[in-house]
Write a structure and sequence with these properties.
Layout (H helix, E strand, L loop, with lengths): L1 E3 L5 H8 L2 H4 L8 H15 L6 E7 L6 E9 L5 E8 L8 H16 L4 E7 L3 H9 L3 E2 L1 H6 L3 E6 L9 E4 L17 E3 L1
Parallel strand pairs: 4-5
Antiparallel strand pairs: 1-2, 2-3, 3-4, 5-7, 6-7, 8-9
Helix pairs in contact: 1-3
């Protein structure tokens, strides 16, 4: 399940952004103080009427444990977003990225009317390369020529072939739903 990021997710957020292993393909790990500031800024940004970033907590259905975060960051065009994901080390290798990102992509295309979702990641991150390829992303050759250490792939609605959403909760059943862009908790198969 994925749901909008909430105050209750602070501990996980801090643990992910300060962990050198989790951050190795993203950037330098943050200090606790910087991670706390980033968390507050993220929550605040999500309350704007037209936020530029929306972040979801990834919850394992079997245990109700929060196992990661994912986000959509919107470009200058509201119909194009970049997707990103971070998982706890214990959640790696268990197919969670495919399910969580698949649900968010499907939601983005069907409920947010996105026309393109980009995935940008380090060329050294082979695990991300495997699962974005599995989800149907294709390499953007024009961007690849300009970003030597970064992979840039994209997917458009007509390319999406992996429906995973089984349930969308109504907005009034969500405990934390700060903006009109958020309208559901998503349950994947």
């Amino acid at each position: 399940m994925i749901r909008p990021l909430a105050e209750q997710d602070k501990t996980l957020y801090l643990s992910l952004y300060t962990d050198a292993k989790v951050m190795r393909h993203i950037g330098e790990p943050l200090s606790i103080a910087a991670a706390e500031k980033a968390f507050s800024s993220t929550l605040k940004a999500m309350t704007k009427p037209e936020p530029k970033i929306l972040t979801w907590a990834i919850v394992e259905k079997a245990t109700a444990a929060i196992i990661g975060l994912q986000a959509l960051t919107f470009s200058n065009s509201d119909n194009i977003a970049e997707i990103g994901i971070m998982l706890t080390p214990a959640a790696n290798g268990r197919l969670f990225p495919e399910e969580a990102m698949g649900a968010l992509m499907e939601y983005g295309f069907t409920h947010m009317q996105l026309t393109c979702i980009n995935a940008v990641y380090s060329h050294k991150n082979l695990a991300t390369e495997r699962f974005v390829n599995k989800l149907g992303f294709i390499v953007n050759l024009k961007s690849e020529q300009n970003l030597t250490n970064t992979r840039h792939q994209y997917i458009e609605p007509h390319m999406w072939q992996h429906p995973v959403i089984t349930t969308i909760l109504p907005k009034d059943e969500i405990s934390h739903c700060p903006t009109k862009r958020f309208s559901a908790n998503l349950y994947a198969q």
